Predict the structure.
Amino acid sequence: MSKQELVVLGQDAAAEGCCPALLATPLDEGQAETLAKVFKALGDPVRLRLLSMIASRAGGEVCVCDLTPAFDLSQPTISHHLKLLKQAGLIDSERRGTWVYYRLLPQTTDHLAAILTRPAGQSRAGIAQPGAVQTGVVEPGTVQQSGAAPEKPAPARGTAPAAAAS
């Protein structure tokens, strides 16, 4: 009979050490630098849309020829954004003839999800409850007073309101 212990995957010390939750353990310098590169790649709206288009594609991959028309950008600019996503480890590519096909690397997005997941049992202090009204979040061009609904700002002195101008 074997005297080895069974290890439940994802619960051993090595697994916990590889990707501590951001909300449970402070990151060391190396982890922070690695994560910053990934978040920087995701910080651009074009790259975020590209990643979403690749990830949501049926079959798991998409040709660059199908990505480029969705943007009002040149093909070299799209290729640059895709290169940055690839360098961040979010996507991979394969050349087939003259076209390049891209696919999501789910282990990277899974890793990000694990890092950003709140540990079980952690209090929800500071996290908005579902259905709660958030204050401080105001649409551009509106003024909000504490406890009041957003209002449009009063017109500047000497100018007529927009509705009366016609």
